[in-house]
């Protein structure tokens, strides 16, 4: 190493500005072991308190990206742009399962590297793991082949993708240094840059079920992500969307896959989920220069869905990734659910006025749908369905949601948490769904 890690930490601790070279050296040392875990913790805490300039954020993003394998699609002779989406995380957010096949039908290629649940939020990777046989860690050559032939493949992070972020993220998680724009931005973007994208859309969530609970914090992160992504050469747009209630009416793993397939086949479409999915897909078509006008882009997305073609693509992706060949047609045969299903009664009459969405995520974790121990297995067959949205009118005793649990005790525990998470009142105020669209125009 050219620089001593402790000198780099000292400089940041004292509020100094690090050079690209210093940051690259420090991160390269993570791979060789010359930068120790304790030094990574010292560095991230110094950044937490003293922040990083835009240039430093870009340098950290690129250094993390370069710590492992990167993908290059240029030799694949693809006839459309390579696009992806990143959500900052929420509850009932199964958008990726619909967005990837919709965009593939529209002519884009979507190599989506998804993650596990984090904190109180769900993860796309955990949802896909509820499909028997579905391989979320295919060989890189198979991943590339499937992206080219089907148009999309949603998988997990390969072992050698951005390993320095894996290490740094794990250390941040246990040293109280996750919630920093300066650290979140490089962590997210390094992984997206490593996938060799032509364009990226960010779904930045805001509200009680998001990591950023106020619009101000969400905007700050969105702007950091946009500025750094663009400076790193990746065309990017962001949409700030509401997470003051679950996006889908289902929360869990298998139950969210079922909700997504019903959405794709048109059997059941949650309206807010539809609007967010259409908005994100349309923005991506514009970002990928596949459409220029919002209205035309939205129509193309709606057609991909209503024609049944997106459902067909999801089925092909599932079959290619070793899942059932008839998953779309016979989903109920493959998804398994816990045995106790119980309606959760409204404790009083009125309107759903507010939902503590984070607590719904925590209730799902208590049921087993998420982790308390990072290495522990999860229960794919538990969760909630038919969750009422804000504004719904209920009479006392009528269901606000249904819980799916392994035991009566677990169902009763979750029902109580849901009843507390739902505030029922004489009136309600609807939250906006889409707060802001930040396009790839100079800012
Ligand atoms: N997701 C990531 O990948 N990294 C963060 O730092 C936070 C959320």
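Sequence proposed for the structure above (443 residues):
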């Amino acid at each position: 190493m050219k620089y001593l890690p402790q000198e780099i930490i000292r400089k940041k601790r004292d509020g100094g500005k690090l050079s690209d070279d210093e940051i690259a050296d420090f991160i390269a040392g993570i791979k060789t072991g010359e930068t120790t875990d304790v030094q990574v913790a010292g560095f991230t805490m110094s950044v937490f308190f003293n922040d990083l300039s835009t240039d430093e954020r870009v340098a950290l993003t690129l250094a993390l990206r370069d710590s492992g394998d990167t993908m290059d699609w240029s030799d694949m002779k693809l006839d459309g742009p390579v696009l992806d989406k990143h959500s900052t995380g929420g509850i009932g957010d199964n958008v990726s399962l619909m967005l990837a096949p919709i965009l593939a039908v529209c002519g884009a290629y979507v190599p989506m590297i998804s993650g596990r649940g984090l904190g109180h939020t769900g993860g796309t990777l955990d949802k896909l793991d509820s499909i028997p046989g579905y391989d979320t860690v295919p060989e890189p050559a198979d991943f590339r082949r499937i992206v080219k032939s089907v148009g999309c493949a949603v998988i997990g992070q390969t072992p050698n993708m951005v390993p320095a972020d894996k290490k740094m993220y794990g250390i941040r998680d246990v040293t109280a240094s996750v919630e920093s724009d300066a650290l979140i931005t490089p962590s997210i973007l390094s992984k997206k840059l490593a996938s060799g994208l032509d364009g990226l859309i960010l779904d930045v969530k805001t509200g009680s079920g998001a990591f950023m609970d106020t619009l101000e914090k969400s905007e700050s992160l969105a702007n950091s992500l946009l500025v750094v992504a663009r400076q790193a050469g990746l065309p990017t747009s962001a949409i700030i969307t509401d997470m003051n209630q679950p996006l889908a009416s289902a929360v869990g793993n298998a139950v969210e896959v079922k909700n997504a397939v019903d959405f794709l086949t048109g059997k059941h479409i949650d309206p807010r989920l539809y609007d967010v999915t259409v908005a994100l897909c349309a923005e991506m078509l514009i970002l990928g220069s596949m459409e220029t006008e919002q209205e035309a882009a939205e129509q193309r997305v709606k057609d991909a869905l209503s024609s049944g073609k997106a459902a067909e693509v999801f089925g092909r992706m599932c079959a290619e990734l070793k899942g059932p060949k008839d998953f779309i047609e016979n989903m109920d045969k493959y998804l398994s659910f816990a045995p106790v299903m119980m309606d959760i009664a409204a404790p009083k009459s009125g309107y759903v006025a507010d939902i503590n969405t984070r607590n719904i995520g925590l209730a799902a974790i208590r049921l087993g749908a998420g982790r308390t121990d990072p290495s522990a297995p999860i229960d794919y067959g538990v969760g909630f369905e038919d969750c009422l949205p804000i504004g719904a009118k209920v009479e006392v005793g009528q269901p606000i949601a249904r819980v799916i649990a392994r035991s009566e005790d677990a169902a009763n525990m979750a029902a109580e948490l849901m009843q507390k998470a739902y505030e029922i009142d004489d009136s309600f105020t609807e939250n906006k769904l889409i707060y802001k669209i930040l396009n790839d125009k100079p800012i």
